[in-house]
Amino acid sequence: MLAELESIKTEALAEIEGITDDTSLEAARVGYLGKKGKLTAASAGMRDVPKEQKKDVGQKLNEVRTAITGALDEKVATLTAARDAKRFDSVDPTLPSRPLPKGGLHPLTHVLDEAVGILRRMGFALAEGPEIETEWHCFDALNTPEDHPARNERDTFYFENGKLLRTHTSSVQIRTMEKLVPPVRIIAPGSAFRRDEIDATHLSAFHQLEGLYVDKGVTLADLKGALEYFFRELFGSKTEVRFRPHFFPFTEPSFEVDLKLHATGKAAKWIEIAGCGMVDPAVFTEVGGKRGDAAYDPSEISGFAFGMGIDRLAMIMYGIPDLRLLIENDVRFLEQFS
Length: 338
Ligand code: PHE
Fold this sequence. Notes:
The strands form two sheets. The chain has a seven-stranded mixed sheet with strand order 1-4-5-9-8-7-6, sandwiched between helices. A two-stranded antiparallel ribbon has the order 2-3. The chain is of the alpha+beta class. The chain has helices spanning 2-18, 22-33, 38-44, 54-87, 107-121, 135-138, 171-179, 220-235, 281-291, 310-318, 331-334, and strands at residues 125-126, 132-133, 164-165, 184-193, 205-215, 240-248, 251-260, 270-279, 302-309. Bound molecules: phenylalanine. Phenylalanine (PHE) binds at residues 168, 170, 248, 251, 275-277, 305-307.
């Protein structure tokens, strides 16, 4: 019996040693340790072993089983290691992982951040007002008469309750003067809405950046200096700024501002970028009437205001040919700016 067990062990270890695949290994396990395996069969012979030899034979049986189990486990480890090594053959597991796609800021946000940053350094504080406005804040207080084309139902989105989607951020001028006394120096970025046909240069929802400065002795020279400085900070010191006489109901005199950029390499041409002017005394009078005090007495104070399209600033800054790209949320377009 002892010799038989020893020979099973020798045979098993030799067989396992030569195995190179999982299937043969499993066959060997079953062949020796399985229900009908050789070792199992041999241990059934324990019954016939004389009592005085049982201890020795039992010990031998355990020794052989341990040896075979150990050899099988070792082989599993060897085969697994070989398989892993082969799998990594064509891969360098020490390479850094692929970058995960990251979100980025929208080009409008980039431009706005820069513009607001410059104006804040110039001393302007951020102000805001509602997008759903009263007619008074959007038009009447801004000296815009009842028959002005901007108030037409074809140009402005009205609600049934008489409120409207603000057609410009100039309403924030009024909101600010209702609350604060001069000196007032604010900027108000935000959305504005008009019933425009959407095309490459028009959106029905767009973005403006409003500015207002009211104090004693504010002059047109302050307005020109402030805007020239601002645009040169934003687009480069060689940028030319031109003030063209224009009309707005709420400023007098009024101007449109054109820019000529010299950084693009293309033949420079004038681009209209903003409206501005000296706050019309009629606006101060209207605000004063609402406030019921003399804080905005037009014989005491003066001011300038400006408003520009943020979407247009982005077009210029990034050479974007079509405004619609800004609202389509096409990742291929947006990821260029992140
Ligand atoms: N609100 C004017 C517009 O939307 C721009 C403007 C703002 C003009 C402030 C003068 C002063 O066209």
